Amino acid sequence: MSKVAVLLCRCFGEVDGVIDLEALRRKAEENDSVVSSTISDSLCLKEDMEKTAALIRDCGAEKVVIGGCSSLARGGAVVDAMVCEGIKRSHAGLVDLREGCAWIHGDDPQGATLKAWNLVQMEIAAMRYRKASDDVTVKVCPEAMIVGAGPAGLSAACALSRLGFSVHLLERGSSPGGMLNLISHVYPSDEKAGDKIKAYSEEVEKNPLISFYPKAKILSVRGFAGDFKVHISSSAGEKKLRVGAVILASGARIWLPHGLYRYGKLKQVITQMELERQFLRDSAPVKTAVFIQCVGARNHERPYCAAMCCPSSLKNAARIRDENPDARVFILHRDIMTPGSVLEAYYRKALAKGVQFIRFEETNPPEILGEERAEGVEVFDIINGMKRKIDTDLVVLSTPLVPNDDNAKLAGMLGLELDRYGFFPEIYPLHPLETRMDGVFICGSARWPVSSGQAMMQGEGAAVKAASLLGREAVSALSLSRVPGEKFGHASVNAEACTGCGNCVAVCPFEACRLQKTGRKSVSRVNKLRCKACGNCVSACPNGTIQLPEHDYRAVGAMIKTAFAGERFK
């Protein structure tokens, strides 16, 4: 039987002002598993931690039940202190007596004490069966693979190389730059797109730590954080890579508005990207232009705002006015989206240059006039309540960025999921550049439509995330945690009892479970570096073969049995 020490904290009167801790201490000592039960003024202070550590060593406790504040307060720090004293993290149980009992039941001391005791004895019961997961360590390969050589990928590659890491930069096109190769200027700086990426492109060409693979495709990916094995093909042929981290910077693509506003049927009804091509060719100045916003966005199919459409229209509308001060330029919109002080100033700059804005309703969109080419636009201005007709020789449709078609295939190789639109989603709001798969990071428009400047910042952020992994000599499974401290644990299989049904393989969202042929039967195996201890496999296993040692069915059963035992607290 495990030896358990129970540590109760007064929190300077915050807890024992409501809860009868002395009664809890005496009651805990009656349990056969408890070798020590003590009360401290404050377990989180250094001197009290040192006294508690000495007490645990003297009584020979193997496991600890801590009754104090929650893990969101100082409880986590107390657990960390116990770990430093040699107690395994899974053997240090934390019971919330302050926020969860004393504070919310301050007007009912008897009820708060009863609840506190129920929680403490449930944790003691669980500790009798709680075990620690076996850890596994893998040597980290200090190289990274970056998928996509647009602004996000270039920024990430250069940042990692400056930190001393080798980078394999894959690009589906023939040259780096991504969508910036297709436009003339970028907002809000209005600098030439080529100038913005020139330094990055030159570094990719000259830096010996960066290997560039044009016209590249990923054929297969296997492995886990610290050790991914990747098979690729490029213009130079097929190659096998071994990397410790993967950064997805594959970008997005422009949606073409076929079937809307007579696009493809009338001449001079074009998209923003087609207008950019005209700028690159130094076409004749435009006399009158009408921009129409939210074409194919903020509707039932794509309810999201693409974020970069409005600033792009402001940039191009202002440029038309710069090239021809006599030009008439209109932006027809449902709303102008310019978040932040910089883009708001950008909007006011376009106003000052003479760009005119007309607001329309979604249910009453503009109508394009003309037989063979765009000759005018008719729109109902909801600000002044009038229908207006604008003679024009150019109509520019602002369309959103949409996910790349190969995102699903790439996600399947890496064990990722896509959001409902097809982008690579952020899984943890506090870790927006991470995916649910350790060692795989996202940045730029692969995760959501962003400007080139935002993509570059995210690329550098993803590089720092990757560097924190690549900088280790080795990584252990339990260290791959989204929160401070170690991971809760990982699933363990009783190979003798496993029937090889495959339920665990079917429900595991991290592809951590697989069936392995052993003799005449198949047995489930768990990749500890992929497992996140979500418990899906445990719930799907028909005979309890697969369990989480830190919270297996014996521990859970003991907690439930204790909770409903009906024992009266005296």
Contiguous helical run count: 15
Largest sheet: 5 strands, parallel
Radius of gyration from the CA trace? 31 Å
- The helix-and-strand class reads alpha/beta
Brief write-up:
This protein is an alpha/beta fold.
Note down, in words, how this protein is organized.
With 570 residues, this protein is α/β, with parallel strands linked by helices. The chain has 4 domains: 4-131 and 555-563, Rossmann fold; 139-252 and 403-476, FAD/NAD(P)-binding domain, CATH 3.50.50; 257-390, FAD/NAD(P)-binding domain; 492-551, 2-Layer Sandwich (Alpha-Beta Plaits), CATH 3.30.70.3270. It has 15 helices and 28 strands. A 5-stranded parallel beta sheet has the order 8-7-6-12-23. Helix 9 links the parallel strand 15 and strand 16. Helix 1 (21-29) runs parallel beside helix 5 and helix 6 packs across helix 7 (193-206). It is elongated. The model has no long low-confidence stretch (mean pLDDT 92).
Topology of helices and strands:
Blueprint: E1 4-9, H1 21-29, E2 34-40, H2 46-59, E3 63-68, H3 75-84, E4 92-96, H4 98-103, H5 109-127, E5 137-139, E6 143-147, H6 151-162, E7 166-170, H7 193-206, E8 210-213, E9 217-224, E10 227-234, E11 237-243, E12 245-248, E13 253-254, E14 269-271, H8 272-280, E15 288-292, H9 309-323, E16 328-333, H10 341-352, E17 356-359, E18 367-369, E19 376-381, E20 386-391, E21 395-397, E22 401-402, H11 407-414, E23 440-442, H12 452-470, E24 474-476, E25 492-493, H13 503-507, E26 513-518, E27 521-526, H14 536-540, E28 546-547, H15 553-563
Helix pairs in contact: 1-5, 5-15, 6-7, 6-12, 9-10
